[in-house]
Amino acid sequence: MTRAVHDFLFTVYPYICLAVFLLGSLARFDRDQYTWKSDSSQLLRAGQLRWGSNLFHVGILFLLFGHTVGLLTPHWLYEPFIGAGQKQMVAVVSGGAAGALCFVGLTMLLHRRLSDPRIRATSHRTDVAILVVLWAQLVLGLVTLPFSVHHRDGGTMMILAGWAQGIVTFRPDAAALAGVEWPFKTHMVLGMTLFLLFPFTRLVHVWSGLATVGYLFRPYQVVRSRRMNIVAARTRPGRSA
């Protein structure tokens, strides 16, 4: 990888992906709301979907939360409680377990979509493509685990976290990644590409899942019987009982 390509991928490309991710999702919601769905194929074959979907979603949600917290939490915040090396080993063990669950579930979903003629006939090309990209990304993530175990001091994790926090604070430092092994870099680039592809696939339904959290904070809905509505209407000011 040349220096120019390296700097582009880890300095400019992240912002391109984030811009398309946010603006593309907003544009799709505004213009094509009828396509904003997960396109479930449960009616065609429910058994394998139940197992595959549950394993995949449990694993991917844990990985998403773990990557977000692990990369974006400043080191000084957790340093009094756990060292960088210990944190990295926790990430390897927990991430490896979640990754294994996700791998089994995603493989089942991909096999189901490719092997069943009815499901394959009703699938969009983007449905299969995004599953393949997710599968490749998951495999790359599992490949990084032996490299992480080899660097038990947590040095690589600190470098990756520093880069991610630099992206968020608009201070990207691609040079810091110069010594990082290729599986990590490939995993990062493909992960950013998933954000780029997000608005054009069924992954947009993730936004709807996050939006349901708002229901926890909605006020209670007042529901009255028909009899109570009639009594309330008759006793309003200006009307005789």
UniProtKB/TrEMBL annotation:
Top-level taxon in the UniProt lineage: Bacteria
Membrane topology: Multi-pass membrane protein
Cellular compartment(s): Cell membrane
Pfam families for this protein: Nitrate_red_gam
Residues annotated as transmembrane: 12-29, 55-77, 89-110, 130-149, 194-217
Keyword line: Cell membrane, Electron transport, Heme, Iron, Membrane, Metal-binding, Nitrate assimilation, Oxidoreductase, Transmembrane, Transmembrane helix, Transport
Residue ranges of every copy of the NarG-like domain listed in the record: 7-226
Main location: membrane
UniProt protein name: Respiratory nitrate reductase subunit gamma
Species this protein is from: Variovorax ureilyticus
Gene field: narI
